[in-house]
Structures are given as structure tokens and as C-alpha cells.
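To the wet lab folks,

You asked to see what we're planning to order before we commit. Fair enough. Below is the target structure as C-alpha cells, and below that is the sequence we designed to fit it. If anything looks off to you, flag it before the synthesis order goes out.
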């Protein structure tokens, strides 16, 4: 059963990477298409993680899926650094690293979010989340 789930995860990762290879004639059209494709890939991976949460998947495969989501979120941010959705991507990366107990990376992405989007709508939640490892001593 685990090998079937692992094969499905690997298949999804491969399909996600292949689906990013879009080709349009117009730069603006290509940019909009790429943004939509990246967002769709992010949503797909988030949905996959939600379905995996209640299954008997191995911890290694589950963590691998988290890192794939982080890669997709980071890819969107790097491709569209001024886009408002990039702020959400950085926040999600921050929260994912925090959930994986990688607090240094979590705080680093929180700092990046604050520098790139100083008026971020969830700034107070972000600051509280960044301070949490300090307060709890983690």
C-alpha cells in the first residue's frame, strides 16, 4: 500500500514539473498563463497533502510532499515577486517550515515577507508566529 502511495506521489511530482513547460507567443499572455499554471500546481499539491494527512503514508513521503509544496510556492514567489499572491506564498512557506520544526528557515521567510510586503494583511499573525520559537525556547 505504501509503495502504491509513494508511486502516486512521484507521479504527481513528475506531472507537476512537466505541466510547467507552457509556451505562448505573447510575453504578457505567457506570464498570465504561467502564473495560473503555478497557482493551479500549488492548489493541486495542497489538495494532495490534505488527502495524505489521514492516510497511512510514510513520514518520509509526507515530508517530501511538504518540500514539493514549498518548492512550488517558492517558484511562484521568484517568478512573480511583486504579485500579491507571492505574499501568501511566503507566508505559507513560513508556516510549513515552522510545522517541520525548521525555525531558522521559517523566520528567514517571515523576514523576507516583511521586507517585500511591509503592509501584509496578516502581519500581526506573522510576527506572533516568528516570535513563538523564541518564547517557547525551540
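Sequence we intend to order:
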Amino acid at each position: 500500500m505504501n509503495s502504491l502511495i509513494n508511486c502516486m506521489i512521484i507521479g504527481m511530482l513528475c506531472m507537476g514539473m512537466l505541466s510547467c513547460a507552457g509556451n505562448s507567443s505573447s510575453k504578457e499572455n505567457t506570464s498570465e498563463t504561467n502564473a495560473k499554471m503555478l497557482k493551479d500546481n500549488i492548489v493541486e499539491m495542497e489538495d494532495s497533502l490534505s488527502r495524505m494527512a489521514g492516510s497511512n503514508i510514510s513520514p518520509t513521503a509526507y515530508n517530501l510532499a511538504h518540500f514539493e509544496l514549498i518548492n512550488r510556492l517558492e517558484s511562484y514567489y521568484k517568478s512573480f515577486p511583486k504579485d500579491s499572491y507571492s505574499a501568501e506564498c511566503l507566508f505559507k512557506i513560513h508556516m510549513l517550515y515552522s510545522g517541520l520544526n525548521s525555525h531558522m528557515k521559517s523566520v528567514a521567510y517571515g523576514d523576507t515577507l516583511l521586507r517585500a510586503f511591509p503592509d501584509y494583511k496578516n502581519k500581526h499573525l506573522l510576527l506572533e508566529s516568528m516570535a513563538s520559537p523564541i518564547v517557547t525556547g525551540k
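Structural context that might help your review: The first helix runs from residue 2 to 19. The helical segments are 2-19, 27-53, 59-79, 84-99, 103-116, 123-136.

Thanks,
Computational group
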